[in-house]
Write a structure and sequence with these properties.
single chain, alpha/beta, 7-stranded mixed sheet, 4-stranded mixed sheet, binds pyridoxal-5'-phosphate
């Protein structure tokens, strides 16, 4: 497929931006070809510089649960813009967003707003260490928690896509504070506590993993993490940057009935603008400055535009709980397009077709996939006007803007690929 304008743009971009992109997976390195440069989006569709349009299953990598430019969010942004873009002083909107988050997620008694998911996880780790007085953190192979130094260990997502095992520039001393164990293995976590017991500050987990492709938790896994961390005086951190407000209004923790000590949020809570958040137990959050000794700050944190977009998104979701049923049905319809023998993992509106025999329950199994066959699948879809994540190790996202007809057409194209 030729995209002359996009090809010219990526060539030009590469002269002034590393790889021509501001986040690695956008460069299409794992699937080949030039990435379409996007001009605009509307509902479930994006439009590129070459005049083509696509049904979008990337949805900005998660935030756009309602598709592109939902009227409620656009209206909120226009209203906020009329009042000013940033004050570096408290505003009522921030309180409203904090209250909305706390109401949707009962485990979040207090919350601090930041600008990205990375900032949220970085701050949550610092807080967990400051609260417990311990240094080590347990994470899971294939879980991605943003580009925080100590968490770029077997981190799935973009690093898996590019085949980068260990990130250069992360001091060994930082990586050594991280204990990485297989996802879905409570026994490995138990062993880590045998080995390091009172040095472990926290276990951080994507409760439904989405950054090695979609990998749901095995039955009892999250319950075991809750029990083990409690028994050893460590904190349980749910990284719900992807799953928060996507799988349910109360995130994966609502779905699985687990109450973590801290939760990190991002993506959907910004309504398409940069918002992250970390929150949890009030006694822990009370250690954050200015109340306590754990310092964390941000010039643009609680930005009026971003907060207004997020608030509009959350209010819409609260008023329309039926959205989640629709998302579930649409995504189930896509999953059903795969023939016998193809591994499909799905949780709500997160979905991955794994090109391996399966099942895929952890990172090691995800890595057995035939990434060349995935690339063929990706281009098959792209050429037929369907924009799928450009990596085997990224979940695809369905939005509420995808109509029954959109989903049926997508399912038909997927079926044709497997039949060809
Ligand atoms: C996307 C993601 C992050 C990082 O968020 P950014 O806004 O990209 O910094 C962290 N954790 C999870 C689970 C994510 O999916």
């Amino acid at each position: 497929m030729r995209l002359p304008r996009s090809e010219a743009l990526i060539a030009r971009a590469q002269l002034s931006i590393p790889g021509g992109v501001n986040s690695p997976v956008r460069a299409f390195r794992a699937v080949g070809g030039a990435p379409p440069f996007i001009v605009r989006g509307k509902g479930p569709r994006i439009f590129d510089a070459d005049g083509r349009h696509y049904l979008d299953y990337v949805c900005s990598w998660g935030p756009l649960l309602l598709g592109h430019r939902p009227p409620e969010v656009v209206r909120a942004l226009e209203e906020a813009l009329a009042w000013g873009t940033s004050f570096g002083a408290p505003t009522e909107r921030e309180v409203e967003l904090a209250e909305a988050i706390c109401e949707c997620m009962p485990s979040v008694e207090m919350v601090r707003l930041v600008n990205s998911g990375t900032e949220a996880t970085m701050s949550a780790l610092r807080l967990a260490r400051g609260f417990t007085g311990r240094d080590l953190v347990v994470k899971f192979d294939g879980c991605y928690h943003g580009h925080v130094d100590s968490l770029l260990v077997r981190a799935g997502s973009g690093m898996a896509t590019l085949g980068i095992a260990d990130c250069a520039g992360v001091p060994t001393a930082f990586a050594d504070t991280t204990i990485a164990v297989p996802f879905n293995s409570a026994a490995a976590v138990e062993q880590a506590f045998q080995d390091y017991d009172d040095r472990i500050a926290a276990v951080i987990v994507e409760p439904v993993a989405g950054n090695m492709g979609c990998v749901p938790p095995a039955g009892g896994f999250l319950e075991a993490l809750r029990e083990i961390t409690r028994r050893h005086g460590a904190l349980l951190i749910f990284d719900e940057v992807m799953t928060g407000f996507r799988l349910a209004l109360g995130g994966a923790q609502q779905l699985y009935g687990i109450r973590p000590d801290l939760t990190t949020l991002g993506k959907v809570i910004g309504g398409g603008l940069p918002v992250g958040a970390y929150g949890g137990r009030a006694d822990i959050m009370s250690k954050v400055a200015p109340l306590g000794p754990v310092y964390q700050a941000g010039t643009l944190s609680g930005n009026p535009l971003a907060v207004s977009a997020g608030l509009a998104m959350l209010r819409y979701l609260k008023a329309h709980p039926e959205v989640y049923r629709q998302l579930d049905q649409s995504t189930a319809q896509l999953a059903a397009a795969a023939p016998e023998g193809v591994t499909v993992n799905r949780s709500g509106s997160m979905i991955t077709f794994f090109f391996c025999a399966g099942p895929v329950t952890d990172y090691a199994e995800a890595l057995t996939c035939d990434t060349r066959r995935f690339a063929a699948f990706f281009h098959w879809l792209l050429e037929r006007g369907i924009y799928w994540p450009a990596s085997q190790f990224e979940a695809a996202f369905v939005s509420a803007a995808h109509s029954e007809e959109d989903v049926a057409r997508t399912a038909a194209v997927i079926r044709e690929f497997f039949a060809a």
